[in-house]
Amino acid sequence: MRTTVGIVGAGPAGLLLARLLRLAGIDCVVLECRDRAHVERRQRAGVLEQGTADVLRAAGAGERLDREGLRHDGIELRFGRRRHRIDFPGLTGGRSVTVYAQTEVCKDLIALALADGCPPLFHSEVLAVEDVDTPAPRVRFRRGGREEVLECDWVAGCDGFHGVTRGAVPAGVSRVHGRTYPYAWLGILADVPPSHDELVYARHDRGFALLSMRSPSVSRLYLQVPEGTKPEAWTDGEIWAELSRRLETDDDWALRRGPVTQKSVTPMRSYVHEPMRYGRLLLAGDAAHIVPPTGAKGLNLAVGDVVVLARALEHELRTGSTELLDAYSATCLRRVWQAERFCHDMTALLHRAPGATAFDDRLQLARLERVATSRAAATDLAEAYTGFPLG
Ligand code: FAD
Ligand code: DHB
């Protein structure tokens, strides 16, 4: 099999890249190890920056997003049983975010791929990417028990943090930065209307809690739990009780409870692989970088990468110039490091580390107080949350 751009992974990065390349008339093939239902149901991100929503619209994936996506003009920070709203448009000159689940983004992009007559090849597990430092890279994959080879001009590694493409960068070239955190997020999906009309990020002495949503009738909630916690360790009743405690306020706000339909634990890490390009291999999205989820940046970064990548590939294929591809890694990494900083700081601002001292707690509360009372501090948060410009 042969194509111009071989894309590994049908998460948001791979699916959107394929769509952008097809719109530019560039031939590509997407290889995905899982099946369609798995990709469409995997519960993950929920918040789209304005720039991300605009990219999806321009790619023709905006119809349902505009109908069903929920525009959010702010978030609430809760600490010391009090509530502080961060007003995005007022602080950023009109910017907002859209709550629209990653599952729905993937469904919309897969539907477009089917309509274009180029669906991802599901059940196709990439085993290795070879010869990326030559003009003829190859992607070896297994489908239906048989090994096959995809020959291409360029390989896009969109296979997430646990993928294989990053492994094709020689050890002497890779520079890896990052850390893990001593806590994780226990996330639930519940059939109950959200208890607040905006997202609530809560700092509590017992740990962080987040109230989010998927639709007017479905809530998404998260609790900070110790690293390594198994979802079964918490009963639904215990989860609701803990959420109520951590989200509690001095006014008459109350958490609505309902049937829990999904429960999972997400580890937290910061990770950056530099460079994002080696020869004809281009890494994008979680394959190149991970942020802790506080700050809702992962999906947005993946979208930013593939916009830069699609533009660079189109430029090379039209003009023969690799100028934009040569700049790809540095262009993306500028934005990636801003998101790394923001997500790290949001995580440190809101989570309670094991062994935190009274001094640590006071500093954390002083930082929160600053965001709640200083327009400059709130603006800094609002600008980062609503999104950094694409490179
Ligand atoms: P992925 O979505 O991981 O896709 C990679 C794909 O590659 C997968 O489909 C995988 O099956 C496939 N693959 C892997 N290995 C192979 C192989 N060998 N062969 C073939 N295919 C392979 N981000 C936000 O922006 N906002 C949020 O609100 C947010 N909240 C989050 C909440 C949680 C609980 C979690 C876990 C993440 C959250 N994120 C959020 C992060 C976001 O989900 C990820 O950053 C995003 O999925 C990255 O997309 P991707 O396409 O790069 O990688
Ligand atoms: C969601 C996830 C996040 O990481 C976040 O910061 C906000 C919302 C969500 O899944 O809804």
UniProtKB/TrEMBL annotation:
InterPro entries: FAD-bd (IPR002938), FAD/NAD-bd_sf (IPR036188), PheA/TfdB_FAD_monoxygenase (IPR050631)
UniProt domain FAD-binding: residue ranges: 2-342
Superkingdom as given in the UniProt entry: Bacteria
Pfam families assigned to the protein according to its UniProt record, in alphabetical order: FAD_binding_3
Keywords: NAD, Oxidoreductase
Record protein name field: 4-hydroxybenzoate 3-monooxygenase
